[in-house]
Fold these 2 entries.
Entry 1:
Amino acid sequence: MTAPAQSLQHRCEEMLSELDLPTPFDLDVLLAQLSHLRRRPLRLLPLLPGLRDDPSGLWVPLEDEDVVFAESSVSDWYRDHVILHEVGHMLWQHRGTIRDVTDWLGQYGVETSQPTRTEMRCSVRDRDKEREAEMVALLIESRIAPRTRSTPGSTSPPAEIAAVLNRLALALGATAAAAGG
């Protein structure tokens, strides 16, 4: 494993050490914990089509709340993975390209007193931020996988998906233990 990959994994593990992952894992409990830690509401909404680049998920940090959007037409496991990825962006406090999203947010009934522009990641230039967020998601999943069974609605992936995730985690620089291997 390269030094930068080890460093990324170490920084992500330090960040996650501040969280008390619920046992058995419950995504809603984790999101409530994040809301409490950040001292602001966190709202989860289904992602509607209409954004350029069609992301699977999106974290929009508004002036007084966090809004996480996740595609709803996917499996429960993948939707939860996308949400954990967005949690990674939130924990890293990533910021992205400034885009006007006022009208788009209005489709969801999200009103904001902010200017009509907010920061969003939709750029290939944000690869490092995407790696950081993905490492957080993979490390959370590696910690919860032994605690949960692969049942409908579970965040624990089926075995074949878990194997792919482990290979992805190792490619991103996670150690075999953190990758679940």
Note: The chain has a mean pLDDT of 77.
Entry 2:
Amino acid sequence: MEGHAKGLGNGRAPDPPDEREQARRGEPRIVDKPWGREVWYAHTDRYAGKVLEVDAGHILSLQKHVVKHETMLLQAGRVRFTLNDEVFEWLPGEIVSIPPGNVHRMEALEDSVILEVSTPELDDLVRLEDRYGRVR
């Protein structure tokens, strides 16, 4: 019980500060896009987290990733989602998981907010079509 009183549930001393990554706080990175914006709230060597704010009537690139694996939750709005050969209406509370190699696109039918978590390869993007002229 003595360890619990000190906040050391396992009975051993915590790691010295120089042996563990320090906690931090800060501001998200805002990335403006022709369709709205991304709010990057996490980007480490193991994972990334973003909020995509997509304006009604706008559409993201038809794209795929070589390595990046992403999972998205539609928090608000309505989206026409293309995933390979399937097109469906994506509704709030639904999740879409996209392993590498899957072709996908999102079109906001209403102002929409999408939560995305992924592997950290944020530059891994193969644009196949793009309304805004960004295909390379």
Note: The CA atoms of residues 60 and 106 lie 6 Å apart.
